[in-house]
Amino acid sequence: MGEAVEAAAAAGADYIHFDVMDGKFVPNMTFGPPLVRDVRPLTSVPFDVHLMVERPWELVEAFAEAGADNLTVHVEGCPDLQRVVQQIRNLGPTAGVSLNPHTPVESVRHVLGELRLVLLMTVSPGFGGQTYIDAMTPKIARAAELAASENPECLIEVDGGIDVRTAPTVARAGARILVAGSALFNTRSVAATLQELREAAEGALR
Ligand code: ZN
């Protein structure tokens, strides 16, 4: 993990995105706050921590202390979303809210004013290496439109199946933070692939 963080940072990544899975909210497990804390000293690139867990409010303090710059929770996992968003912001990090593919964008409208980002899952969460769901493109556009009207500082982030082929599509739809996992790390050169991804996304906006 340390090597991956250093490679992404050296390649010029704007954020390091961490997928935290608990084996309950999603059918897979990854890591907890100690790992984030252990790799924190390796770079000054902001840490974007995506909590795919049940009861995320019980973990946000530990992840904030571990060095998360942004903490994202799922609307599906938070009966009192506004309270969790406030809790995150009170601890210091910026807050994001994530939506599974079937969850409507309107479900986050009431907290948009307090968010740094809305993270749209463009695959079903739980595993890397999945294929981008084409039906998510109009949802990105809808989220971007809603965010622009409620809070222009809130960016749309996409996670799942992002590669050089899908990057232009999501960028054109309004995504401004693109998460890449398999597409980046399953290549010979993280730096060259990151540059390709960036050019594909930015080129689509020119
Ligand atoms: Zn993620």
Structure description:
The chain is an alpha/beta fold. Helices cover 36% and strands 17% of the residues. The chain is built from eight helices and seven strands; from the N terminus they run H-E-H-E-H-E-H-E-E-H-E-H-E-H-H. The protein has helices at 2-10, 33-39, 60-66, 81-91, 136-150, 167-173, 182-185, 190-203; strands at residues 16-21, 47-52, 70-74, 94-99, 117-121, 155-159, 177-179. Strands 1-2-3-4-5-6-7 form a seven-stranded parallel sheet. Helix 2 (33-39) runs parallel beside helix 3 and helix 6 packs across helix 8. The longest helix is centred in the C-terminal third of the chain and has 15 residues, at 136-150. The model has no long low-confidence stretch (mean pLDDT 97).
Short structural summary:
By secondary structure, the chain is of the alpha/beta class. The protein has helices spanning 2-10, 33-39, 60-66, 81-91, 136-150, 167-173, 182-185, 190-203, and strands spanning 16-21, 47-52, 70-74, 94-99, 117-121, 155-159, 177-179. Helices cover 36% and strands 17% of the residues.
